[in-house]
Specification:
By secondary structure, this protein is mostly helical. It contains four helices and no strands. It starts with a helix and ends with a helix.
């Protein structure tokens, strides 16, 4: 009985630390203060609900050993660099940078297509002008 009580206390403390440590946009379904009150006043149910419904596991700082981020190489083992417990601080910057690079590449592609279309029209107009000049008068 003592072990179960100790386990509940430990889980409650872990859940409280986790709730307080999460940024507000990451917390799901209820505001942070409601989660804290739920965990404090109804520990067993509150802890379970927090880990099932409140915590956004996709943005968690904990990385599970079997999961690899998309940027990880396929040759790294399950306990390789992809399995670190905390992501590098530059990961969000890299994602934003990657998105900005993709948008810039898309804009360059659109500009190249517009330039090619404009060149095609100018060549067609030039060809018509040459045909008009070559016609006998």
């Amino acid at each position: 009985m003592f072990v179960l009580s100790l386990l509940l206390i430990v889980l409650t403390i872990i859940a409280l630390i986790d709730v307080v440590g999460q940024p507000e946009p990451v917390v799901r379904n209820l505001p942070k203060i409601v989660w804290v009150l739920l965990i404090v006043f109804i520990p067993l149910i509150g802890v379970g609900l927090w880990f099932l419904l409140g915590k956004d596991w996709s943005n968690s700082r904990i990385r599970f050993p079997g999961r690899r981020p998309r940027s990880a190489s396929r040759s790294s083992g399950s306990w390789g660099p992809a399995a670190s417990l905390s992501p590098s601080p530059s990961q969000p910057d890299r994602a934003v940078s990657s998105t900005e690079e993709q948008l810039a590449a898309l804009e360059r592609e659109i500009q190249a297509a517009e330039d090619a279309e404009r060149i095609r029209k100018l060549e067609a107009e030039l060809a018509r002008d040459d045909d008009r000049r070559d016609e006998p008068r």
